[in-house]
Design goal:
Keywords: Signal
Shape: elongated
Organism: Chitinophaga barathri
Oligomer: single chain
Structural class: alpha+beta
Strand content: 25-35%
Protein name: ABM domain-containing protein
Number of domains: 2
GO biological process, one term: polyketide metabolic process
Order of helices and strands: HHHEEEEHHEHEEHHE
CATH architecture of the largest domain: Roll
Helix content: 25-40%
CATH class of the largest domain: Alpha Beta
InterPro entries: Cyclase_SnoaL-like, Dimeric_a/b-barrel, NTF2-like_dom_sf
Low-confidence stretches: 18-31
Number of helices: 8
Strand order of the largest sheet: 1-2-3-4
Length: 288
């Protein structure tokens, strides 16, 4: 369960990564010479076409120095070829048969924008996701910044959500995510009481005090109480307290004991004196 929840949390974190985080180096100031700019733009577009054909599609990162400046800065501060390779190489490794196809190439000044689509089979681990052997289609937009004929920075905006859905990490209907998350680690602390008719008032008064207190504790989500009365007038009561996880429940138990001591309340004494029977257990939700 924890592994599944971690997958979801990490996947959601991936979706929150801003587009600029792929890599961004220093951006040069455009030249005022239009003719020179046009020549440079054509050259830069040719560089990007070769980058996709000769490096990405052939998985040949050994020639990256021909395309990437030593001044390139990756998202984690890596410089040069290492900064560029640190993000794109893991994708090609996870999808070794990946093919990148440029659908549109636009250049202006020191910038080249690329609209692309890719297709590949996940045969190795990708980020936190073990190999699924599923074929994935992706599309996105990349912007490359140039200086002196080499790439000094880049931005990437892929369809992250689509990839995670195709890999089966996130559901196609992302509105179901809250339900998935809440069911993975939550625990329910369930008490079942049989209370003699004469003890009903004192029992309910104490139960209400306890229910109000646990609502103030970290990790508390919600609580419910259900009652019924049998033919002899005895009260049957079920209380259900839902907590974020088992750790939160354990800490709550410790706080409750401190509260009892401070309040001078002995639950075992009350149950014995009022002839109340109790069945207590911790439950987790059954996954479909």
């Amino acid at each position: 369960m924890k592994s599944a929840l971690n997958h979801i949390r990490t996947s959601l974190a991936i979706l929150m990564i801003p587009a600029a985080s792929f890599a961004q180096g220093s951006r040069p100031i455009s030249s005022p010479n239009k003719t020179t700019d046009n020549m440079n733009t054509r050259h830069n577009k040719e560089i990007i076409s070769r980058l996709y054909d000769e490096v990405l599609n052939k998985n040949n990162f050994s020639i990256l120095e021909e395309f990437v400046s030593e001044n390139y800065i990756g998202p984690k501060g890596e410089k040069g070829v290492a900064g560029f390779e640190s993000n794109i190489a893991p994708v090609n490794k996870a999808f070794p048969d990946i093919i990148w196809q440029i659908t549109e190439l636009v250049g202006e000044g020191d910038k080249v924008a690329v609209s692309w689509i890719s297709e590949g089979t996940q045969q190795n681990q990708f980020l936190h996701i073990p190999a699924t052997h599923k074929k994935v289609n992706n599309n996105g937009l990349s912007i490359y910044y140039f200086k002196e004929g080499k790439i000094v920075g880049s931005r990437l905006q892929p369809d992250r959500l689509g990839v995670l859905q195709q890999l089966g990490v996130l559901p196609q209907d992302i509105s179901k995510l809250p339900a998935i998350q809440e069911s993975l680690e939550q625990v329910r602390f369930i008490d079942k009481f049989m209370v003699p008719a004469a003890a009903k008032d004192e029992f309910m008064k104490r139960t209400n005090i306890n229910r109000q207190f646990i609502k103030t504790l970290p990790g508390f989500i919600e609580d419910e109480a259900y009652t019924s009365t049998d033919k002899d007038g005895n009260l049957h009561c079920v209380t259900i307290a839902t907590w974020e996880n088992a750790g939160a429940l354990q800490k709550a138990k410790e706080k409750v004991q401190e509260f009892y001591q401070k309040d001078g309340f002995d639950p075992a004494e009350m149950l014995k004196r009022l002839h109340i029977t109790m069945d207590r257990a911790v439950y987790t939700k059954v996954q479909h």
